[in-house]
Specification:
- The complex is a heterodimer of chains A (about 220) and B (about 290).
- Chain A is globular, with a radius of gyration of 20 Å.
- Chain A has one domain.
- In chain A, α3 runs parallel beside α6 and α6 packs across α7.
- The longest helix of chain A has about 35 residues.
- In chain A, about 85% of the residues lie in helices and about 0% in strands.
- With about 220 residues, chain A is mostly helical.
- In chain B, the strands form 3 sheets. A 6-stranded mixed sheet of chain B has the order 6-7-8-3-9-10, sandwiched between helices. Chain B has a 4-stranded antiparallel sheet with strand order 2-1-4-5, with helices on one face. A 4-stranded antiparallel sheet of chain B has the order 12-13-11-14, with helices on both faces.
- Chain B has 2 domains: about 210 residues, Rossmann fold, CATH 3.40.50; about 60 residues, no CATH class.
- The two termini of chain B are about 35 Å apart.
- In chain B, about 30% of the residues lie in helices and about 30% in strands.
- Chain B is of the alpha/beta class.
- Classes of the chains: A mainly alpha (about 220), B alpha/beta (about 290).
- At the A-B interface, α1 and α4 of A face β6 and α2 of B.
């Protein structure tokens, strides 16, 4: 598997300078606004981007080459999921650095930082869980379209249901939730449970990707 | 002679194309040239051997053992070049070697370095900036640096200049000096195969037309140049293809020696591999 990691690492190395510049920019911008959430959410976008930037080279011949080597298909998929998990670790590290710099410069502590981190990582793993099998089955370009859909569709639905249509059931549900639970409790629910469910989904997604990749022909 | 790779009724269907019940034993210590027009099934056959595509019928054996029963590590024994297939362009040859070292247990750095030097490969330049010939040389260096016993090359010499092609063919001839080594190479450049191949396998529309010792193949077929009237007298069992022109007929016949004994009045010229294939593909038959 090390050889497969190295392949992706060398591929990513070419873009490393751009990634570092972007991260530094996000940190400076976030600190100047006194907002450590900013770096957290921007690292999420960057993490997803990094995870999927290794796919085009694989689709252009990398998969076929790997399979001419003594590597089984399951290992190829494992390597990609490990890269995905490494992307999650990168988001975490960047967010910790962002928060540390924020505390140093402003002296204030971001409320519910850990819970928000869980939400961000939950979103990242949820996206990874959905997009990796889509990439294996339909290619990375179609996965990008799905990713845009995953961002746009919930936003549009929430906007339509709450602001325009004012569906009573949803607004009532939100009101009820606000009356019943404290904000922290909702965060715990949203963060902890969502993070756990996303991790479970990632496991299922891995099994699905293995199944897809084992049937794929090159 | 032991078979390095044994194909038994290998069948693969893709829409309206069928690689149709291919059966052949690829002997050890030989270079086997796989020829056929575009879409004949050469690449599909090589990919079936490498388990990149699944087969619907038949069996493939490596050293007498079914591939389906072998762990992926059997590919340690195989060096592969597939035209147009790149591992990753955004790395240099040394980094490529680092990846391969981790994938092959029998990887030999010294051998890889030797090939980089001998084949004059720039180890510091990104592979994406290499010429086609340079990429092919690098793939060759990799294929030969992990103590492979079998080389499977798909169109490895296509699109390369004669000097690079000659280098590659020399390396193949050197590789085959070990009787346990085997080369299976597909190419459109028949002259290359004529130089190095011991056996020729000819695929046409997914079917194996013949798999023959090259010398026997050249001895077996001949081209008769005759009039239309003389052509009509040749029994159909000998005719493999013909071309008619205003000056007469050219007929590819098989079993040249027997034909000459039975029809001594005809002039039969030796046929080269290219002619044999062209007559099979484009020539008229009765």
């Amino acid at each position: 598997m090390k050889g497969l990691f190295l392949k992706d690492f060398y591929g990513l190395k070419a873009y490393m300078r751009q990634y570092v510049i972007l991260l530094v920019f996000f940190m400076i911008f976030g600190i100047s606004m006194g907002n450590s959430h900013y770096i957290m959410w921007m690292s999420l976008v960057l993490g997803i981007n990094i995870s999927f930037s290794t796919f085009p080279a694989d689709e252009a011949g990398g998969y076929a080459y790997m399979l001419s080597c003594p590597v089984d298909r399951r290992t190829c998929v494992q390597a990609k999921y490990m890269i995905g998990i490494a992307g999650g670790a990168l988001i975490f590290v960047c967010s910790v650095i962002g928060e540390a710099l924020n505390r140093l410069s402003t002296g204030s502590v971001t409320e519910s930082w850990l819970l928000e981190m869980a939400v961000v990582l939950g979103i990242y793993f949820f996206f990874t869980a959905v997009l990796l099998p889509v990439s294996y089955r339909y290619g990375v370009e179609k996965a990008r379209v799905v990713m845009l859909g995953m961002i746009a569709v919930p936003m549009v639905l929430v906007f339509l249901s709450v602001k325009l249509i004012r569906i009573p059931a949803i607004t009532e549900l939100l009101d009820l939730a606000a009356r019943t639970f404290t904000q922290e409790y909702m965060f715990v629910f949203g963060g902890g449970v969502f993070f756990g469910v996303s991790l479970l989904l990632l496991g299922g997604s891995y099994l699905l990707s293995v199944r897809i990749f084992e049937r794929k022909e090159f | 002679m032991d078979a390095a790779i044994c194909l038994k009724n290998v069948t693969k269907r893709y829409g309206d194309f069928t690689l149709d019940h291919i059966t052949m034993d690829i002997p050890k210590g030989c270079i086997v040239g796989l020829v056929g027009e575009n879409g004949a099934g050469k690449t599909t056959l090589l990919k079936a051997i490498l388990q990149m595509v699944s087969i619907q019928e038949g069996e493939i054996l490596l050293d007498g053992r079914p591939l389906a029963d072998l762990a992926p590590q059997w590919k340690e024994q195989v060096g592969v070049i597939l035209a147009g297939v790149e591992f990753a362009g955004r790395m240099n040859a040394r980094q490529f070697g680092n990846c391969m070292r981790s994938l092959y247990r029998n990887w030999r750095d010294d051998q890889f370095e030797k090939y980089l030097k001998d084949l004059q490969i720039d180890a510091h330049k990104d592979i994406k900036d290499y010429s086609k010939g340079m990429k092919m040389k690098l793939d060759l260096a990799v294929a030969l640096s992990h103590q492979a016993k079998v080389l499977i090359f798909d169109e490895a010499t296509s699109g390369l200049d004669p000097v690079v092609r000659d280098d590659i063919l020399d390396i193949l001839l050197e590789f085959i000096q070990d009787e346990e080594h085997t080369v299976l190479i597909s190419s459109h450049i028949i002259s290359d195969l004529e130089k190095v191949a011991d056996y020729i396998a000819f695929l046409h529309e997914g079917k194996l037309q013949f798999f023959m010792d090259k010398d026997r193949l050249l001895y077996h077929f001949g081209v008769v140049r005759c009039t239309l009237e003389e052509y009509k007298k040749i029994p159909a069992e000998y005719v493999r293809g013909s071309r008619k022109s205003q000056f007469g007929c050219e007929v590819l016949i098989c079993e040249r020696e027997r034909f000459l004994r039975e029809y001594p009045g005809y002039v039969v010229d030796p046929a080269d591999i290219e002619e044999i294939i062209l007559y099979h593909v484009k020539g008229e038959t009765r």
